[in-house]
Each structure stands twice: as C-alpha cells, then as structure tokens.
Structure prediction request, 470 residues.
Amino acid sequence: MENKNSFDQWPISNEIITAIRNKGWSSPTDIQNDSIPFALNGTDLLAQAKTGSGKTVAFGIPAIERCIEDNSIQILILTPTRELASQVSEELNWLKGSKKIKVDAFYGGVGIEPQIQKIESGIEILVGTPGRIIDLIRKKILDISKLKMLILDEADRMLDMGFFPDVQWIISKSNDKRQTLLFSATFPQEILDLSSEMMNEPEHVLTSEFEVEIPDISQKFSRIGRINKSWALSNILFEFNFQGQILVFCNTKRMVEMLEQRFSKVIKDKKISSLQGDMSQSAREKVMNEFKSGNIDLLISTDVAARGLHVDGVNLVVNYDLPNAVDSYVHRIGRTGRMGNFGVAWSLVSSEEMGMVSILKNVHGLDINESEIPENENQYFSRKKDWNEHSNLFGMVSLSIDVGVDEGLNHQKLFDWVKGLIRISDLAIGSISIDERDSKIEIHQSKVDYVISAIEKNKDLGRIVHVAVV
Prediction:
C-alpha cells in the first residue's frame, strides 16, 4: 500500500526513487508535498518557499521527469548567484540517479568557451545566472525557443540584485507553451506583475512557515483607480457612519498628509489626525495617546501605526494603499476586531495592486471578498472617469466595435483604420481579434477617449459604429 507521505505516492521514475532512498530520505518536505503534484501535471506554479525548505527537489523532480535523453535544451533554471547555480546543478545531478540526461551550471566570472562546448556537445537541463544566459543567447549558442519548462529560483533575490530586466529579456526569447515554475521567499509587486505576464493560471503554494493568523473580521476589497480613491473612502466613511474609530493606512507620508488635509476640510464634525515617520517621537506619542483615549475619530497613518497600536474601539480599517508585504497587511487589519468586537477591513485596490490580492487570497487563503463601493448622497468628492479602472496590468483597455469580417474587416485594416483616425503610436494599440460581426481591440488608457470619440464620429462605413468597453 502506498504511503501518502512518501515519494512513492507520485508517478516518479525508479531512478529518482532509488537516488532518494540512497540519500536516506523517507518523506517529502511540506513544499515538496504541495508543489510536486501540480508540477508533475504540467501546471504553472507560484510557490513561496525559503532556502532550506527542500525547494530544489520540489522543482527538480518535475524537471527531470519532463526530460528525454536527446542532447537538446529542455529545461532552463535561472538563479541569482553562481553559488546557487552550482548548488542546484549538483543537487539535480544526484537526484537524477542513473538517468542519462545532462545537467550543468553556467555563470559568469569564468571562461565562456568551455560552457559553449558543453552546450554544443548536448545538454538537457541548464542552470544559470541571467547575465551568462544572455551572453549565450546573444552569441546564438543557446536557443530557448522550445523549452519544456522555465524555472525561476529565488526570484525575490534576482529582483533585489537588479536582474529583473535581464529575466524579462530572457523570457521574451522563450516560448509561450512552456511550463513555468516560480519560487520565491517573498512576493514584491514586481514579481506579481511578472508572474501575471509570464504564467498561465498558476497554482499557488506556500509552506506552513508562511501561514498567517487573521483576526475574525470581515475583509473586503474594491477595485478603484487611484484618482477615485478619495471618493471611495468618503463613501465608505459615510456608509460606516463613524460607528467606532477608524484607521486609514497609506504607503507614503505624502499621501497621509494629503488625505488629512483633504478630509479635514470636508468633515468638520469629526476629529481627524495623522501619524507618519517624519513626526517627532513626542508628537507621535501625543497622537497615539489621543487616539487610544477616543479623542480622535479618524486616524490616517503609514505603517508606523500598524504594529503596537492596541485600541479596542477601532471598528474599521481602510487600506487606502494596499501594502506590498503580507505581514504588513496582517498587522494593519489586526488593529480592528479586538476584544471580540465587530471589525471590518476594507482595501481600495487599483489595477496594479490586484496581484497582491491574488497572493492574499490564493497563496495565504485569506477570505477577502470583492465589494462595490457604497453609493450615497455624499457630495464631498465626485467620481471621475478613470480608464485605469478598466485597464490591465499594461494599461490597455479592451474595446468592442460592432464591425467584423462580414463588412470586410481584418486585423491589418482595423489597425490601419484606428491609426488613421487619430495620431496614435503603434505601442498604444494592443491585441486585436475579429469575429463575423464585431471586433475587439486593446487601446492604451491614455488614448481611449480619443479613439472612442473618433470611431463614433466616423462615417466611413455609411453608418454609426458603436463602441463599448469590455
């Protein structure tokens, strides 16, 4: 009978099983147990794991299993340092056991000619640092256009070391049909953006060491563009009707100061104050003591108030800006719902912040529900038209046009037509799809108003053309 906490539970080659047994390993680690089934099934994977968690074997087993012995590059593993590249290569070499596939490390600081010879003689799994991989691609020695799998190891370290432009360039030389595995100890916004761009509906995995405890409070988020966040916050405040104290968190001192000034002008019957790092220690303590005593109704703060501020009367926390780190989010919302009281945490999320929501929901399993901004008669701030609320991570807005193949349209004609209507660069036009009676075209948010107006006024087809945002 199979042991469900052993490597035998998966369809793994006998060579790998034998190598693992010879190593003296009896059962997989948490990250191996959670990652390997998805990776073996060909699923893209976004995994949070630290060094020492067994992550190399977690991606090494699926990588080796995908390979066949044909002397062609099938797997590329990117690492931030030559030391890690060497370490990963060594680990995969014992892990493959008696399999004949070849694994080697490629990095700078040593001569490139011996590495070129290794590639020309045939290799299946290449582990390397971004700089040396770029050198090999530019010399036309390395072709990664037919990869089966691309693995990014310690992606956050690559970001910290300034390698992300190199990583993006390497990805651009790869193929879309590959499987992608990304392992990182933390998930800054840049990594979330990259994962959205390079991965196809990835599964999210984290080890138990990253699990977080959340107070028993209602967690909400609303999609809203930055220029309408003040409108959204004012509507939430009026809906909440100041039933208890309120904490609003921003990521910058400048935003804290601006919001305090903005809301103090329009809400005259409530005490509003701010807390941020440029204040003197005595000034911060004065504000915190006033807030604790209940003399401040609304406190706008940076993360300086996220830790150590224990106020039982806080019933609403609003993330005006979503923090970039999970622990910051947890500490912020932990300021409400204390001592068994009812608590609400409401996050205002722009399109570029949605990646963090995905991590909070899918990786950490937080129960965050999307909610509409409440509508009320509050006239302090009016809602402005903001195409950013409809755009993707690249700022592109998808428009539907009721013209298609039946009226002689094709991709090039639609592209040329839009270009002819207004002065617009090629980069401001994204993907195009054509059906029999309608078409879809992506336009950069900065040009959407002009394109919609120009199309609706155009009489080339002898009729009015209708445009809608999709």
User: Anything to note?
Assistant: The radius of gyration is 27 Å. The mean pLDDT is 87. The first strand starts at residue 45 and ends at 48. The first helix runs from residue 14 to 23.
